[in-house]
Amino acid sequence: MVEAAMxxxxxxxxxxxxxxxxxxxxxxRYGVVAGVGRAxxxxxxxxxxxxxxxxxxxxxxVSPAVLDWLADYRxxxxxxxxxxxxxxxxxxxxxxVEGSFAxxxxxxxxxxxxxxxxxxxxxxxxxxxxxxxxxxxxxxxARRANEEAAVAAARAAYIAGFVSTSNLEAxxxxxxxxxxxAAHSFTLLHDxxxxxxxxxxxxxxxxxxxLVDTYSIEEAVRTAVDLAGPELGAVRIDSGDLAIxxxxxxxxxxALGATRTRIIVTSDLDEWQIxxxxxxxxxxxxxxxxxxxxxxxxxxxFVYKLVARAAxxxxxxxxxxxAKLSANKATxxxxxxAMRRYDNDGIAEAEVIGVGVQPQGDxxxxxxxxxxxxxxxxxxxxxxxxxxxRHRAGLAELPRAARKMSQGDPVIPTLYESDYA
Amino acid sequence: MVEAAMxxxxxxxxxxxxxxxxxxxxxxRYGVVAGVGRAxxxxxxxxxxxxxxxxxxxxxxVSPAVLDWLADYRxxxxxxxxxxxxxxxxxxxxxxVEGSFAxxxxxxxxxxxxxxxxxxxxxxxxxxxxxxxxxxxxxxxARRANEEAAVAAARAAYIAGFVSTSNLEAxxxxxxxxxxxAAHSFTLLHDxxxxxxxxxxxxxxxxxxxLVDTYSIEEAVRTAVDLAGPELGAVRIDSGDLAIxxxxxxxxxxALGATRTRIIVTSDLDEWQIxxxxxxxxxxxxxxxxxxxxxxxxxxxFVYKLVARAAxxxxxxxxxxxAKLSANKATxxxxxxAMRRYDNDGIAEAEVIGVGVQPQGDxxxxxxxxxxxxxxxxxxxxxxxxxxxRHRAGLAELPRAARKMSQGDPVIPTLYESDYA
Lengths: 421, 421
Description:
nicotinate phosphoribosyltransferase, TIM Barrel, 7-stranded antiparallel beta sheet
């Protein structure tokens, strides 16, 4: 595309691309933005090195002129976007990229890959932490996702309220708190469960989490309290009917005097399972598979579309809104602006998108787009703590129907205001 | 776990871990192994560098003794496995890792991450290429998966019969043939569709694929043939009812004399859509989202379990089979061996797994486990061409019911033979 656009003299036309969801996954009431920080890191490192250029040259993918252009590639345009942790709805213009057609179009795959996966995990994680209430959720899904995706998933989950991850690389790379428990193999390695527990308690102290379902849960709990006393930190249950088992284990722990020993449950948990356990005596959830696969929706289906471009290569040429008409996939042309509209009680009531113009808001409207990149420089400063707080605050502003786990529509409508008419 | 096992003197016990699926995803008749080559690469690079060690030290994740052990870590054991492209069934022992407990247990996450995702994509891809028959499938899902997962997905799809990928990095890294088409943005960039097509034809030649559904498909096809003549390589349709539209476009192309111009379709294709298009005049499928998310099953749910370990730290100590009893998650202890059993017509009739002993096969049985690593050295030599052929041959040997897209059981049963009793 870059090569052909160079041939037709259109490659340098000033262009606006928009990254947005056409819709939410079926049944979801809202989505959660994640990946912004990773996308900015990727943009900073978006270079074509010797190996990449050699491949493109040797396989005649592009001409020498395009090779030269790629070798010098630095994004020099502007980007606005929803910040990380923000809530989004169908049509929310999550990222707006302005630059020459060539420099903006080649970012498509990198930006979509990051946003599509990270936001899918954050959106699922948000529903899980919502259902968990005050009980902590621990991310434990690394084994069930691609090895690099897993690190991104831990980060996205943390943004959406998870308290820690078992992924040490995510701890190292992003400063996310880490936590973990022993596997069944550790118990099986030893000649008896008692010896395994003794070894773990010796090294980790009495505050550790002992896994109690390798053989008989009742025996394991008795052994655990026998060895650690009432200071035992927690036990983990990873199988069976968790609600019933947690009740039995709680009763047993209490009878043994271990009234403060917590119960952590794991085993294919998702937001519905977590909700179903809300009345059970459970103190924390370890969530793996269903988190890293977005609880049934492992990609957000975000797209990256050209919505406006200059009428000519003249830097001052007027921007023309453009849109495809493809059946079922038509796009809304024109640069977008976005505000969240609130009622007088501070509850969100609409996602208002201005097409070609800033929406005429009232004083309660909150602008959603922030400048991320200015003339090629990344200007957005953010950290995971701010993103976590943004997610918490954004969720708190939504109507209570956002908490519904049943099938239904987005919790607020998306309204368009246009000056192109 | 390593630290506590060191404390109890069990870390050096010879151990056997097994990577296997408890079951196939609901409705699937078979699975396809992928990720072996990537896992071997990861194993070769499995080192703890200064940054990793500093993180573990600074956060007191492990003791100085374990840090020293990690700094010197090299896997020194043995690994056997199903080769890439092989078919698998519930319980198939896809990878068997033998080494000390410590050195084998810390590979769990890396091995599972690779196998769980790559095999999920290959298993979905196999159903798609099966439904596509002689028509080529092109991998186009990079934008809908994590940026690194996307490269792995292109590789897995290629193993399972896809002919090419739009992911240039997968082409560079793994030598997979690459292909691509223009996006709607390229058409929208130009002042008219005709100018966009002219630009693409100038650069790519008449053999290119023109995207014809940005505005009116009928007009676009007329323009395309007007510009390129009957030598036009292909048109791509990305929206609407693909079966009906392909029929209309075929009739129009034929009427215009472009009888050899191919029709490529894209737009949320999966194995059922591809099957439903088998009678439509379609010449190739571009598959994106549903491929990289495993067509509804983005992870295989493989687990990595300790199945046997030495009775003591003595290198010559007898191996003891071990198994957890956890409700619904019980494992089968003991070292596994695996054969595929055939009837007299050469059709597979069972997956035979020997527990603690090589199955007593007949002359038609085919052993499935190959030595991948010997005393820490990667000895398995394989390439993607061999993996593709293995997939093709493995599929050809299955009963015809393997082709069923309806819900159902694995196409052959898994049988266990045991000497532990």
